Amino acid sequence: MAELVDGARRLGWVLLNCLVRFVFMFVNNFVAIPSYCLYLVLLQPLRIWDSPTFWHVEGIMFKWMLAMVSSWGWVAGYTVTEWGDDVRPISEDEAMVIVNHQATGDVCTLMMCLQDKGTVVRKMMWLMDHVFKYTNFGLVSLLHGDFFIRQGKAHRDKQLIYLQDHLDRYYHSRDRKWIVLFPEGGFLRKRRETSQSFAKKNSLPHLTHVTLPRLGATQVILKTLGAQQENGSVSSESGPPSQSGNKRKGLQWVVDVTIAYPKARPMDIQTWIFGYRPPTVTHVHYRVYPIKEVPVDTEPLTDWLYQRFVEKEDLLAHFYDTGSFPPAKGQKEAPSRGMTLDPVWLCVVQLLAFASGYMWYSVLQYLYCCVF
Question: Which pLDDT value is given to residue 230?
Fold first, then answer.
């Protein structure tokens, strides 16, 4: 009987915690997202008069919005440990980021672990499934200039044309530096069986922890944001002038990101919102490749991408067996580093969001009273 009562208490605490977190997230979104949109409306004259400054301010607010999402997981004890190359020294360079995709929580994890990487968050562009457009954060991403891509053969060719047009119109004009995509084209659990069947028919590697990547978006990004050299790779000396008037260097790096969850149990957005899973450390591995090593022609690029995901498969298999990523060549042990967020800064961002919400409510209420 005592065990039953104790179990009921624990369940009651979990449900109460979920309810409190949900109410907070709802209010947080209700004040932060409209405030972000209204600030951008207010700043439209600045966009016409001084576009670089406008997008600089927008990038700062966008980083704050992502920090709020990061704080939801941080408070619940969801943290990140980083492995592999240190990407902070290249945070001001242009880079394409390729990530394995297991669940909706991958996006939240990236929002958290990139917060301390200089100006990356405020100058990044996301490529994500069009379903995200209809989430609470979809409007913010739409205004920021992210690209929502439709999956499936029926949409594939048109989507690649739309992507190239989107990059031409928004990537340089808004001073973007990093572009993030998930080349697998869907969640692991949804694509694994199809990927393994395709691999078997075409004598390709059998993958369990990742799926074979799709080429389209990656190739469009490389061709649009970098100049092709005679050897078929991408030059890092390309691109139109930046907003400051200096010639852009173009893509300089490919950052290969591998996300691993303890016991191969990925986290979804519901976990971040309700916080019902015990404190969890998500592990993120980085590997950086100079853009000159990346081919752009279809066949060699396909081989290069496949090789990256075979490496991801090996990394994840080693992690799930040992609890750590394997060391690089010449090292006996792979060093790791805990990613940290400043709780004071997170609190300040949240206070600014609620203060902005109250301010805009007061302004709109006053205008309504004046009109009616």
Answer: 44
